[in-house]
Amino acid sequence: MTLALDRWMCQVGGVDLTRASLLREMLSGTELGSRTTEFGYALRRFTTRRSGLMLFGPVDDEPWHLTAHLDDELHRAGVEDLRPSLVRWAPPPGAPPHLAIGLDRLKDAGRGESLLVVAEDTPADTLLERISDVRRRGTTIFSIGNGDNELTSLSHETLVPELLVPDGFGWTSREVLEPQAALTEVEPQTAEGFETAQHLVSLAAADEEAGRAGWRRRLRNAIERLSGEPA
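Request: output the structure for the sequence above.
Response:
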């Protein structure tokens, strides 16, 4: 599977960019909206080395989905230095460069870089061992998972979608897209919590606000709250 194919699959079978953007607006001020925004901002803030954002996951469930969306969103926003690398357990011979990044990349990881681990199921010991090694080298560890204690303890920042999104959560496309009359013809689909959280993180990481210094963002938010209008 290529990143381009994964993008196509996400658009056909899941939450595409338009739906995700509208969903993010609807969730503004909710715990899910706030936590995914904070997570995406932190991902941007703590990755200070060029090409220093790596994504990693279980051997049988590598995070193609989030890598593709982060890459798309960051490219669209012009944040080229942060565009992610998918670290794979065993890239096949002859794979194109962006799909041929193997475990040796983790050995080179260090300060100023971030490892984003996506593990919907309880991670295997082999995955945890790799994460622990990278953390010892000074890399910042982010994780999107199911609340596993070991993964959480290894992570500097963690996001657990099932704690933010009730089981069976879902808005239909029609409900999400209702403000856009031209798009209400789309057939209803369910937005799964784990996938939804990844879309929201991608949008947040590419947000212009994510690149602002912390004090400027806090000042801007305070002004907006006091004035009731965008600063």
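The longest strand covers residues 114-119.
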